Amino acid sequence: MTVTVTHKDAMKFEAKTAKSSFIIDCPVISPVEYFLAGLITCSATDMILMPKKQGYEVTELTVEGEVQRAQEHPKKFDTLHLNFSFHSSADDTLAARWVMASLETYCSTVNTVRDSVKIDYSIMHNGTCIRENEAMISGGGSSMDFGDIGGCPS
Fold it and tell me: Domains, the chain, ranges and CATH?
Protein backbone atom coordinates (compact mmCIF):
# COMPACT_ATOMS: atom_id res chain seq x y z
CA MET A 1 0.00 0.00 0.00
CA THR A 2 1.33 3.42 -0.94
CA VAL A 3 -0.11 6.83 -0.07
CA THR A 4 1.43 10.01 -1.45
CA VAL A 5 0.76 13.36 0.22
CA THR A 6 1.41 16.56 -1.74
CA HIS A 7 1.28 20.11 -0.39
CA LYS A 8 -1.29 22.18 -2.32
CA ASP A 9 -1.43 25.60 -0.63
CA ALA A 10 -1.54 27.11 2.85
CA MET A 11 -2.22 24.08 5.08
CA LYS A 12 -3.99 21.94 2.48
CA PHE A 13 -2.56 18.64 1.31
CA GLU A 14 -3.75 16.09 -1.23
CA ALA A 15 -3.50 12.43 -0.28
CA LYS A 16 -3.42 10.00 -3.22
CA THR A 17 -3.85 6.27 -3.06
CA ALA A 18 -3.94 3.73 -5.87
CA LYS A 19 -7.74 4.07 -5.91
CA SER A 20 -8.60 7.67 -5.12
CA SER A 21 -7.52 10.97 -3.58
CA PHE A 22 -8.78 13.41 -0.97
CA ILE A 23 -7.84 16.78 0.49
CA ILE A 24 -6.56 17.10 4.03
CA ASP A 25 -7.40 20.61 5.21
CA CYS A 26 -5.32 21.35 8.30
CA PRO A 27 -6.10 22.67 10.87
CA VAL A 28 -9.80 22.37 10.00
CA ILE A 29 -9.35 18.64 10.59
CA SER A 30 -5.98 17.71 12.01
CA PRO A 31 -3.96 14.70 10.86
CA VAL A 32 -4.53 13.16 14.31
CA GLU A 33 -8.30 13.48 13.81
CA TYR A 34 -8.01 11.85 10.38
CA PHE A 35 -5.98 9.07 12.00
CA LEU A 36 -8.61 8.52 14.70
CA ALA A 37 -11.40 8.62 12.08
CA GLY A 38 -9.58 5.95 10.05
CA LEU A 39 -9.12 3.82 13.14
CA ILE A 40 -12.83 4.04 13.96
CA THR A 41 -13.96 3.49 10.36
CA CYS A 42 -11.91 0.30 10.17
CA SER A 43 -13.91 -1.20 13.04
CA ALA A 44 -17.18 0.27 11.77
CA THR A 45 -16.79 -1.55 8.44
CA ASP A 46 -16.33 -4.80 10.36
CA MET A 47 -19.57 -4.03 12.23
CA ILE A 48 -21.47 -3.93 8.95
CA LEU A 49 -19.71 -6.82 7.17
CA MET A 50 -19.54 -9.48 9.92
CA PRO A 51 -23.26 -9.44 10.69
CA LYS A 52 -24.10 -9.39 6.97
CA LYS A 53 -22.01 -12.56 6.45
CA GLN A 54 -24.06 -14.18 9.23
CA GLY A 55 -27.43 -13.11 7.81
CA TYR A 56 -27.98 -10.10 10.08
CA GLU A 57 -28.23 -6.40 9.41
CA VAL A 58 -26.79 -3.73 11.67
CA THR A 59 -28.63 -0.40 11.58
CA GLU A 60 -28.12 2.98 13.24
CA LEU A 61 -24.43 2.23 13.78
CA THR A 62 -22.44 4.93 15.50
CA VAL A 63 -18.90 4.44 16.77
CA GLU A 64 -17.41 7.25 18.82
CA GLY A 65 -13.77 7.34 19.86
CA GLU A 66 -12.34 9.41 22.66
CA VAL A 67 -8.59 9.70 23.02
CA GLN A 68 -6.47 10.94 25.90
CA ARG A 69 -3.05 12.05 24.66
CA ALA A 70 0.27 12.50 26.42
CA GLN A 71 1.03 16.10 27.37
CA GLU A 72 4.58 16.02 26.01
CA HIS A 73 5.61 15.69 22.39
CA PRO A 74 5.07 13.57 20.39
CA LYS A 75 1.71 13.55 22.28
CA LYS A 76 1.01 9.88 21.59
CA PHE A 77 -2.36 8.34 22.39
CA ASP A 78 -2.36 7.11 26.00
CA THR A 79 -5.91 5.77 26.07
CA LEU A 80 -8.67 5.17 23.56
CA HIS A 81 -12.28 4.55 24.53
CA LEU A 82 -14.67 3.36 21.80
CA ASN A 83 -18.44 3.59 22.17
CA PHE A 84 -20.36 1.28 19.82
CA SER A 85 -24.08 1.92 19.43
CA PHE A 86 -26.21 -0.06 16.99
CA HIS A 87 -29.39 -2.03 16.43
CA SER A 88 -29.76 -5.58 15.10
CA SER A 89 -32.00 -8.63 15.44
CA ALA A 90 -29.11 -10.61 16.98
CA ASP A 91 -28.99 -11.38 20.68
CA ASP A 92 -26.66 -9.34 22.90
CA THR A 93 -24.04 -12.08 23.08
CA LEU A 94 -23.62 -12.22 19.31
CA ALA A 95 -23.65 -8.42 19.07
CA ALA A 96 -20.81 -8.23 21.63
CA ARG A 97 -18.88 -10.91 19.74
CA TRP A 98 -18.96 -8.77 16.58
CA VAL A 99 -17.35 -5.88 18.45
CA MET A 100 -14.77 -8.09 20.12
CA ALA A 101 -13.91 -9.85 16.84
CA SER A 102 -13.38 -6.51 15.15
CA LEU A 103 -11.17 -5.15 17.92
CA GLU A 104 -9.24 -8.31 18.75
CA THR A 105 -8.83 -9.84 15.29
CA TYR A 106 -9.97 -8.04 12.17
CA CYS A 107 -9.43 -4.28 12.48
CA SER A 108 -5.83 -3.75 11.35
CA THR A 109 -5.67 -0.12 12.50
CA VAL A 110 -6.75 -0.92 16.06
CA ASN A 111 -4.36 -3.85 16.12
CA THR A 112 -1.54 -1.59 14.89
CA VAL A 113 -1.81 0.62 17.99
CA ARG A 114 -3.04 -1.86 20.58
CA ASP A 115 0.40 -2.61 22.04
CA SER A 116 1.03 1.04 22.86
CA VAL A 117 -2.45 2.39 23.68
CA LYS A 118 -4.75 1.29 26.49
CA ILE A 119 -8.03 0.56 24.69
CA ASP A 120 -11.45 -0.05 26.19
CA TYR A 121 -14.95 -0.07 24.77
CA SER A 122 -18.64 0.13 25.60
CA ILE A 123 -21.52 -1.35 23.62
CA MET A 124 -25.09 -0.07 23.36
CA HIS A 125 -27.18 -2.69 21.52
CA ASN A 126 -30.84 -2.03 20.74
CA GLY A 127 -30.87 0.82 23.25
CA THR A 128 -29.41 -1.22 26.14
CA CYS A 129 -25.87 -0.98 27.48
CA ILE A 130 -24.51 -4.53 27.22
CA ARG A 131 -20.82 -3.76 27.90
CA GLU A 132 -19.33 -0.81 29.71
CA ASN A 133 -15.65 0.15 29.82
CA GLU A 134 -14.47 -3.34 28.89
CA ALA A 135 -10.70 -3.47 28.52
CA MET A 136 -9.31 -4.83 25.30
CA ILE A 137 -6.78 -7.60 25.74
CA SER A 138 -3.45 -5.89 25.09
CA GLY A 139 -0.58 -7.10 23.01
CA GLY A 140 -0.26 -9.16 19.90
CA GLY A 141 -3.83 -9.66 18.81
CA SER A 142 -5.93 -12.76 19.17
CA SER A 143 -5.31 -16.23 17.82
CA MET A 144 -9.05 -16.86 17.49
CA ASP A 145 -10.20 -17.50 13.93
CA PHE A 146 -13.59 -15.98 13.17
CA GLY A 147 -13.37 -16.89 9.47
CA ASP A 148 -13.05 -14.66 6.43
CA ILE A 149 -15.35 -11.63 6.56
CA GLY A 150 -14.18 -9.88 3.41
CA GLY A 151 -14.13 -6.19 4.17
CA CYS A 152 -12.22 -3.28 2.82
CA PRO A 153 -8.96 -4.39 1.22
CA SER A 154 -5.92 -3.34 3.20
Answer: 31-135 (3.30.300.20)
